TrEMBL record:
MF-aspect GO terms: ATP binding; protein serine/threonine kinase activity
Parts of the chain that traverse the membrane: 58-81
Keyword Cell division among record annotations: no
Signal peptide: 1-19
Species annotation: Lupinus angustifolius
Ranges in coiled-coil conformation: none
Name used for this protein in its record: Protein kinase domain-containing protein
PANTHER family: OS01G0750732 PROTEIN, PROTEIN KINASE DOMAIN-CONTAINING PROTEIN
Keywords: ATP-binding, Kinase, Membrane, Nucleotide-binding, Serine/threonine-protein kinase, Signal, Transferase, Transmembrane, Transmembrane helix
Residues that coordinate or bind ATP: 170
């Protein structure tokens, strides 16, 4: 409406300008009129006035047209600016709904499940649960509720909201290091949502003690499954490949899809947790760092013996390839059923990498060192491929190791479609033959 009003005003202005200076006419007597058709009229004064009048009219039209165009352009720019900076109510509503939906995805594991749990506040986006309820739901941290133990405390099973089983990590934070790990883990996990990374549900504080509440992983850690009382009997070849693939997907998310990237820095079988269907999820982000956030040369050496990459151990060099090395060690555990470090004498230990590499690259020896639980249950080609991936991941030189994305793409075809890969099992696996040539892992 405003624009139409302005156009109308400009139109009236043009009419005024035209009417203010009409073309000059020279009235002539009637008896001369008949001659004008056959004789040219020589009236210099009148013709000049006509030219001057038309010139003024053209100038007026040009000025008014230019002003109109400038005005329309200005109004258009103003409209765009207003709608960009101050969106309409409908757009605001849509944006608000989209934002709430995104928040809902991140907050769903925590807030939606704690409908009757007593909360005493928020730590960023993380609910702070009343300590008394934590104590009550763990039976006052009864020993029989312990699921596992870590460097700074134990993990307990608890039942919140009557039917929600969760895991509660109890951290004794008398030192700044422990407090920093607590803050680091809560901060990172509150921002990360991925099917292969443990979900943070809440936290709690009581004096110097901190509590982190996670979703419960019913089948415990990969370490307990492989090296516990069952010695891996519940893990078939296909299940082990699925666990390796899940772990690679979790790591790829940290390395490639988090901005800035995250280096886990404590990748190991005890930090890979398994749910009721043996879906694997990465846990324990206390030592994780954001790549590029600080000088990694000044970071205190941390990690677990047997999983720490040589360049990090010797030179303090920390990159995403450090996680790839640790993943390679986990892959060797899945393949061989051995611990990352084993005693060979009362005062002597040997790493799985040192022991396995010479045999992994020899196809005549490889079948003999595979975990007896899964020996001869897989296609030999798949066995060789997994061995080759593991060997590349634990190369001493970081530049020779693949990116976790490349590892992921190598594992997908080795996992059945039912377990999240692309492999279709059409026949019974052949037995491994010792006549096959050795693996070629040279660079």
């Amino acid at each position: 409406m405003k624009l139409l009003l302005i156009v109308f005003i400009l139109h009236q202005l043009i009419r005024v300008l035209v009417a203010a200076d009409p073309p000059v006419s020279s009235p002539q007597p009637a008896h001369i009129t008949t001659l004008s058709t056959s004789m040219p009229a020589f009236s210099p004064g009148v013709e000049d006035k006509h030219k001057h009048s038309h010139k003024k009219l053209v100038i007026a039209l040009v000025v008014v047209s230019t002003a109109l165009a400038a005005l329309v352009l200005s109004l258009l720019c103003f409209w765009i600016y207003q709608h960009t900076k101050h969106p309409s109510k409908s757009n605001k509503k849509k944006n608000a709904q989209r934002s709430d939906a995104e928040k809902g995805v991140a907050a769903a594991p925590s807030l939606s499940k704690f409908s009757s749990v007593k909360l005493v506040g928020m730590k960023g986006s993380v609910p702070i649960i009343d300590y008394k309820q934590i104590a009550k739901d763990t039976n006052n941290f009864k020993e029989s509720n312990i699921l596992g133990e870590g460097g700074f405390g134990c993990v307990y099973k608890a039942c919140l909201d009557d039917n929600l089983d969760v895991a509660v990590k109890k951290l004794h934070c008398e030192t700044q290091i422990a407090e920093r790990e607590f803050e680091n883990e809560v901060d990172l996990l509150s921002k990360i949502q991925h099917p292969n990374i443990i979900s943070l549900l809440g936290c709690s504080i009581d004096g110097n003690t901190r509590f982190i509440v996670y979703e419960l992983m019913q089948n415990g850690s990969l370490e307990a499954q492989l090296h516990g009382p069952s010695h891996g009997s519940a893990l078939t070849w296909h299940m082990r490949m699925k666990i390796a693939l899940d772990t690679a997907r979790g790591l790829e998310y940290l390395h490639e899809h988090c901005y800035p990237p995250v280096i886990h820095r404590d990748m190991k079988s005890s930090n890979i947790l398994l749910d009721a269907k043996f879906n694997a999820k990465l846990s324990d982000f206390g030592l994780a760092i954001i790549d590029g956030s600080q000088s990694k040369k000044n970071i205190k050496l941390s990690g677990t013996l047997g999983y720490v990459a040589p360049e990090y151990l010797l030179d303090g060099e920390l990159t995403d390839k450090s996680d790839v090395y640790a993943f390679g060690v986990v892959l060797l555990e899945l393949l061989l059923g051995r611990k990352p470090v084993e005693k060979v004498a009362p005062a002597q230990c040997q790493s799985i990498v040192t022991w396995a590499i010479p045999q992994l690259t020899d196809r005549s020896k490889l079948p003999n060192i595979v975990d007896p639980v899964i020996r001869n249950t897989m296609d030999p080609k798949h066995l060789y491929q997994v061995a080759a991936v593991a060997v590349l991941c634990v190369q001493p030189e970081p530049s020779y190791r693949p990116l976790i994305t490349d590892v992921l793409h190598s594992l997908v075809p080795l996992v059945t479609t039912e377990l999240g890969g692309t492999l279709r099992v059409s026949q019974v696996p052949k037995h491994v033959s010792s006549a096959d040539p050795p693996l070629n892992t040279s660079h």
